[in-house]
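Table S2 (text version). Query chain:
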Amino acid sequence: MSRGFFITGTDTGVGKTLVACGLAAAFREAGFKVGVMKPAESGCRNEKGHLVPQDATFLKAAAGSNESIERICPYRLGVPVAPSVAAAHSGVQIRPDFLVRLYRDMSAVHDLMLVEGAGGLLVPLRPSYTYADLAREIGLPVLVVVGNRLGAINHALLTLEHAACLNLKVSGYILNDMESERTPATDTNAETLAEMTRVPCVGRVPFLRASGPGPATPRETRPDLGDLFQRYAEFDYLARIT
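Corresponding structure-token output:
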């Protein structure tokens, strides 16, 4: 099996990029040569005629990667919808065989790979081909990012159960606090999930504010992100099983 993790989420906007960047920075600081991929990113901003993938750019910086952004994110799409829809809108054909081949090329020169999906496992890259299919083809175990909010239990259990139905290896889930305000749901989700699934919780990330000098910077670019994820994720366990 390949070394690394395929990072998916229970929904869009639950903190996949934050977790992927945090783990990339943590593994890099621990001495690993980290490869990162965001196979397709929609909603890219247009800068002087070029589509710039924000998530992939954050991943590249967090991993300290020398790979080009074109290899890290081969499909950069403008419309903020599922990649299959955005690709059709732009007249682009996403080729899974190309993604698998690119992944294998990159994994051969890195100690481990972190591949970030979009949305959840069943988001389509092309009709009848989802991120779950890609995770299975490249052979990476799955890490599920669970947004710690009302509704998290149902979304998490559905994701974990469907991954099991697809015979995907799931290494665990990471609970991500999305707001600083505590609620009855955020206070009890961890305990409830622990009671309802045997899949291990491999991290609880508190709400992280942006930091840095000057104008506000994204949380994904915090200079202490690697240290934080070595503390808040079960980093020793993740390093051991990868």
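Notes on Table S2: The chain has one domain: 4-241. The chain has a mean pLDDT of 95.
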